[in-house]
Amino acid sequence: MLRKIITDNYSVSEQISLDDVDTLAKSGVTLIICNRPDGEEEGQLPFADIAAYAKEKDIRAEHIPFVGGQMAESDVEAFKAAIQNAKNIHAYCRTGNRSGQIWQAAQ
Question: Shortest CA distance to 59 belongs to which of 68, 67, 50?
Fold first, then answer.
């Protein structure tokens, strides 16, 4: 995982693995947000697998999927609600781009 730090409490990356969830847990992440639709790419780890493993690590996981270039206002509103009161957030998508764009849109 190539983790890009956006702010002191928000980072983004490409698709994560279960090992990456371990790494994020060790770094204090309390919320993982997936901005990828399931099945976007062959072999992609489903969000449910990430969410279940994150829960074992006491990390909340939210799925706010949207296709690149098709972010809707409802996605931004769901994102704002998800990050409210979150202390250390990591979001991912295919490249990290969408997760950066939704952060900017929510500001």
Answer: 50
